[in-house]
Automatic annotation (TrEMBL):
Tree of life domain: Eukaryota
Membrane topology: Multi-pass membrane protein
Protein species of origin: Xenopus tropicalis (Western clawed frog)
TM region(s), chain numbering: 414-433, 453-473, 501-523, 549-572, 584-604, 616-639
Keyword annotations of the record: Cell membrane, G-protein coupled receptor, Glycoprotein, Membrane, Receptor, Signal, Transducer, Transmembrane, Transmembrane helix
Any one cellular-component term (Gene Ontology): plasma membrane
Name under which the protein is recorded: G-protein coupled receptors family 3 profile domain-containing protein
Amino acid sequence: MDPALNDRTQFPSFYRTIPNAEVEIDGIVQGLKHFGWKWVGLIVSGDEIGYRAGERISKELESIGGCLAFVAHSVTLSLNIVEEIVKTTANVIVMFINPEMNFIPWFLFYKLPPKLWITSFNYNVISFNLNEMKTTLNGSLSLMIQEGEIPGFGQFFHTFSPNNYPNDALIAYTWQLIFNCYFTDTSSPIWKIINKPVKPCTGNETFSEADVSVYGNRNYRVTYRVYTAVYALARALHNLYSAQPPANHWGRLETLKRKVKPWQINQFVRNVTFTTFPNDTHSFDKYGDPPGQFDIIKLLFLPGHCILKTKVGTFNGSDNKATFYINNSADLWGPYFNTIPQSLCNEPCAPGYRKSKREGAPSCCYDCVPCVDGEISNTSDAPSCFKCPGYEMSNKQRTACVPKMINYLSYEETLGASLASIALVLFLTTSAVQGVFVKYWETPIVRANNQNLSCLLLISLMLCFLCTLLFIGRPTQICCLLRQVTFGPGSKLKKYVGTQLPIVLVTFCSLGNIGICIVWMTYGPPFLEADILSERDTITLQCNEGSGYFFFCIIGYIGTLALLSFIAAFLAKDFPDRFNEAKNITFSMLGFCSVWGAFVPAYLSSKGSRMVAVEIFAILSSSAGLLGCIFAPKCYIIFLKPGLNTRVVAARNY
């Protein structure tokens, strides 16, 4: 079975009737894959075939994420092999050794834990007569070459006697082994090992049904392969002598007279094809191998040295694609396991976890690490977690991606409701002040400043308070545009720096603000965006200013006007004025500049709904500062100091 014999240059006339060892190795590998055994112990012979089997099995296990718990060679001290079996956590052990490399007698001295053994065809189970061996290997699965029937051989088997072959030592030894007896003129080392008295052999012992179940019935394996080898040679000779030229250039009659050389029959053996009972077709491939067909046998050791061999599946490695079949209705796992045994280095990682290499451990031994927030795994033993899309987040178990919550400054939350309430209160307050000014339109305190500009300023303040409501609620594209256009931020109110400015100056400053807004809306308008980066578990709907350059141009333009207003009012604060208009304007501009000066860093450092709240707060506080500093003193005089609101008192200041 050595694969090296496949070299047709060195061995052009070598043919097998037993499949190549590599096909058997493939069968074992297919079984490990079929049952999902990824943590396996391996015992192989210390020759080239054993090392090749170890490399092949190890490589195939790695391809499915498995590895070998240990590798022991039968040339190693048997005690070391037993120690490996005792300490391993693997429930499955593969034994691929030659019959002559037998370490099993060491099982006599140790009580080994229950394992499922996978044995190769090479290992001779006939020698399992010791109770300790039967206990250890009971329930093992063995890959055996396909059985076949030899017509007439069953009758020969039942009438067989070693007395007919007195000079055949092998027959005598086998007879002693089967019937637990000895011939008086021979001795066997195995009886010295077990140290038990045995009876003499007569040669007339008969096979019981138990013996037949162990050693032979009408279907045979190795014997059948010997039969097919003889049959193949006979068929080749038949083809040789019956062939016509030019296949046989001698001619039929001349061939019968010639003495055929062994090499001359090689081409006929290579091309031979024949059928045996019952309809088994035999041939050789280009390497001289027969069809790689195996039976999967369950071995149960019964009382009375009886071995029950149950066929539970098949493996066909002769096809381009190997086929592995298991009869699931058969009792596969008794007597030590009720269901398919698990043989893993550690439990599989559940969904929501990923595998993490365990330092210093074999490749299939790993730790299970939970996926980080925003990543999931939805399969067992996931090698890695994968990130959720930007609009989704991982659930609590890290097994699925779920949509993120939509976040924006809404009327339902405390902050949004509070800011909206403040805006409405300030709007109503400004409306009341507007009504007071209309009622006292001809009084000196109202006339002290340009009445029309005062009215325009109050209307602008009311619009500013109302425009903050555009910042609250689910944003839309229209809202994003109106937010900046209606306030800009500040619109007309920040261009008004005092009641003494002409209408022309106010109009001119307003046109500058409007011009910047038009260019902004044309080349880089604000737009609605979904921010998925600021907060891990939520999507923040917000208005992006579009061109940041134009946004800060607006702020710079209004800031410049406010600064000029502050300077002008500050220089005029000492002018004679009964109602302190210049001082009021100075304080209002000082408050306005302070608010918007602090707004820039606060705005840049805020994200999401907090950024919107900062902008609303800046609008409300700066507008409220103007309302309080400019109009509160006037209302104070109108309601609490009406004596000062007369022409006589006002005339004293001039």
